[in-house]
Write a structure and sequence with these properties.
The protein is an alpha/beta fold. The chain is built from 9 helices and 8 strands. It is globular.
Amino acid sequence: MDMDEKQRLREEDLQRLRGLRLMDDDFLGVVFDGNIEATELLLNIILGRNDMVVTQVVGQREIKNPNGRSVRLDIHATDSESKQYDIEVQREDRGAGAHRARFNSSMLDTRMLKPGEKFYKLAESYVIFITENDVLGKDLSLYHIDRVIKETNELFGDGSHIIYVNGAYKNDEEPVGKLMHDFRCIDADDMNYSVLADRVRYFKESEGGIEIMCRVMEEMRDKAVSENNKMCVKEMLNDGLPIEKIARYLHITVKEVEEYAKETAVAV
């Protein structure tokens, strides 16, 4: 890649950075990664508490399933009582479906217990979807989903919780409304909560923060190219093209073609 191309991509990244919001999952993951104070604020508002003690928070954590589909969590947090929190931003309605929530909840559960541990030691888990639109369509700020015994309408009490946060909710008199306002903001100066504004300002306006975000966007671009190449290799191999020709068409090495083929379980 020549210098002109690098400069062009750099300018594109800077332009994109200026338009990012907390409602963009990759930006959210960077802003909240390791940020205990911001995560406590977020969870206190969503859960209606004021005493959250978060002990660990990681942005963009992948939970691998050796026997099936893995999942990447936008924010994964643990509190002082070992409760687990998966916080996801979903801009597309289809990305926040009931089955997706169920899957994420199950993935949190699978990593909690060590071999031989009793099931009652499963910690409480919360899957929290912050959606750009009112996915459930009832014009509420929050939707809480828990298992209930239908005949008695009592909570089943399995410790599994799903919460939808309506990102389109607008009421600056309520904490959730103020929080969602901040999630929609492009400019840190327009935000309500200083702990969020300061972090957004750092990644958008400081030299160090901008460099971090540019590296993140470069990695995202490289990953997108890699995923596209992987798909192309699979299709070309299935069509019977030799690996040397595939490498020439995609401008990659024969070794890379072989690696992509291995990842997609296509015989070379």
